[in-house]
Amino acid sequence: MENSEAPKVSEKGERRKGGLITMPFIIANEAFEKIAAYGLMPNMILYLVGSYHFSVAGGTNTLFIWSAISNFMPVLGAFISDSYFGRFLVISVGTATVLLGLIALWLTAIIHEARPLPCDPQIGKCMKPNAGQYAFLFTAFALLSIGAGGVRPCSLAFGADQYDNPENPNNQRVLLTFFNWYYASVGVSLMVALTVVVYIQNEFGWVIGFGVPVALMLFACLMFFLGSKLYVKVKPHKSLLTGLAQVLVAAWKNRRLPLPSQDSDKYYQTKGSKIMEPSQKFRLLNKACILSNPEKEVNADGSASDPWRLCSVLQVEVLKSLIDLLPVWSAGIMIAVLINQHSFPVIQALTLDRRLAGNFKIPPGSFGIFSVIALTLWVVLYDRAIVPQISKYTNNPRGIGVRARIGAGLFISCIATATAALVERKRRAAALQQGLADHPKQQVDMTAMWLVPQHALTGLSEGLNAIGQIELYYSQFPKSMASIAVALFSLTLAVGNLAGSVIVSVVDSASRRGGGESWVADNVNRGHYDYYYWVLTILSVVNLIYFILCSRFYKCFENERVWDLDAVELHDKPHTSTYLSA
């Protein structure tokens, strides 16, 4: 691969590709894509309820499912990129698809016929969207999800491709420079999305509010394609998912073979692997790496002649580690439900006094910024102040162990939902006392700053738990397969969104029985959002207990597995930043 700190000229006078000159094009594409995408979610519940006449529960379910698909698609995008088309083509198609999705969403705000007729639900029954209007809206959502599946999993790796030149003595410094700028752009993008874009939507309406992300994404497309001739374009290779699937197929094909003794040389190993024989866990999978006829099964270069019949010990052990992680991984689903509570806090904030200074009001969708601030402050404080002090007593270079951090995050998430329930109880009582039971759009005489603690606690729990999850995942796989960690976390968010949709549907249906008012009713003052938060609190406590039980049986929390010659560099991976980019 020919790339270096700065573009150089080859002996033939041709400019070598890659280097720092490509950084603005790649970072601009990623940054503006995130501003455009994350700037839509905070206020989307208001758009669905106000312009499309969704119920609050129905709109929340729609957003949960949309987020689930958006978090699943990057896993598929990474597979397609690694196996078939390469990162450049997948990012190119993904970027263009995101732009088309934003344009389609923008058109729903511009074209009156794309939405049902406006009405006031407090006065009369509003008309629901017809099939064509639903199709138009959901097509926009689908395009955005598909596009995200192409951009998000590939941008960081594609950027690293431009600077990863082992022959350059400054290679590590150049890569670090890129990572720092990349992660800084992600943080700034998130801040801009939650403040500037949301503010524009609130103050200038949906046409301009959706038009700004379109303009930003158009600029991102132009920047990315302008740098096309400068990029290093690595060819696709076998996907990690393919390698894991091969273990299952090979184990099935070899199911009739007897297992050799544990110290036998009948197991197929890759060059450089420190694992000479498979473990005794899930022993049936060991049959995937049995050598029955080495002359026919192994090529002259040491590769398997049929990788769907013979796999390496390393492949088998990676799959076992993945299976071993599943119980702990599943304990992260509930906190993913809490992280993705975008709808109900916005509805609550809309009813409160949001004045910050003078006549300036914080947009209801911008209160999520307090979660980001809390997360960022915790990461900086933990890395710069807590770790150096605690590591002296724990003998752990990371300060607090991974298991303790994940558990602490789950515990704080329980406090966050309980706090949300208590604040909503106070808000609802104030609304009823002020005679606003049937006037959910009128402002309650209560400051919206009451919502800050629950957001801050959510950010803190996220900083402890989510980052701890990724660090754990990284420590359990070879360096060359570290992308599994990001895939696992992305799947956690996807399944968490699906679980959130199920919870809202069950709460809505169960609370309506007997003709009662839904706890998640459109009229926030008549409903009982506090009860909904108590349901989340109970589920979070149960999940915490489940995690404690799982952690007693899972013994690898504090031990980083050494797989091969390059695995020793795993601890140098930027765990926090990888989480932010996901």
Radius of gyration: 26 Å
What spatial form do the alpha-carbon principal axes imply? globular
Number of helices: 18
Give the name of the CATH superfamily of the largest domain.
MFS general substrate transporter like domains
Secondary-structure blueprint:
Layout: H1 23-38, H2 41-51, H3 56-85, H4 87-110, H5 131-151, H6 155-161, H7 171-226, H8 240-253, H9 294-297, H10 313-330, H11 333-339, H12 344-350, E1 355-357, E2 360-361, H13 369-394, H14 402-433, H15 452-475, H16 483-512, H17 529-553, H18 575-581
Antiparallel strand pairs: 1-2
Helix pairs in contact: 1-7, 2-3, 3-4, 3-5, 3-16, 4-5, 4-7, 7-18, 11-16, 13-15, 14-15, 14-17, 15-16, 15-18
Describe the structure.
The longest helix is centred in the middle third of the chain and has 56 residues, at about 170-225. Helix 15 packs across helix 16. This protein has about 575 residues and is mainly α. The relative contact order is 0.12. Helix content is about 60%, strand content about 0%. A two-stranded antiparallel sheet has the order 1-2. It has 18 helices and 2 strands. It has helices at about 25-40, 40-50, 55-85, 85-110, 130-150, 155-160, 170-225, 240-255, 295, 315-330, 335-340, 345-350, 370-395, 400-435, 450-475, 485-510, 530-555, 575-580, and strands at about 355, 360.
